[in-house]
């Protein structure tokens, strides 16, 4: 009964959600600034301004914190991309440019997110596997959006291949660019990625019209 009490108009569930958010915000800071090795229970709780018991209320291990952080970034990316697609003009170039711009903006407007995703996503074999699953999830999103946009019946294995190729290539390209090893401005990067998405999408749809 005590756990369900409301204080100041905020329920116990809402307070727990707020504490979880504070812990993930702190994790984002620590991983981006100091690396995932510095993500300790004591350090995380000190940064979040919370008692350590609230850590165990939400997480079991450091890996579970990193998984939740990666999931939150992925959810933000998905939301931004889908929102961009709904407002962009209905042609392949505008749709591709809007989606790519929205996704890259999430990671570059707050550089901590790109830094955390790159560090946390490669921290352990389990997290690398989770990152691979996230890549596949975004590939499924691209495949579904592309199929709906072009309205052409294309063998699913070909759609899946191109979607995975595009997302895998974008992930590696973005990693290289963020590391400073690709001499392109942000807008040049977005434009070049857009060209590749349009080329592969228009080509495949055109083959089956």
Automatic annotation (TrEMBL):
It comes from the Bacteria. Residues 17-77 form the HTH tetR-type domain. Coiled coil: none annotated. The keyword DNA-binding applies. The keyword Transferase does not apply. Residues 40-59 bind DNA. Keywords: DNA-binding. InterPro entries: Homeodomain-like_sf, HTH_TetR. This is Transcriptional regulator, TetR family protein. It comes from Nocardia rhizosphaerihabitans.
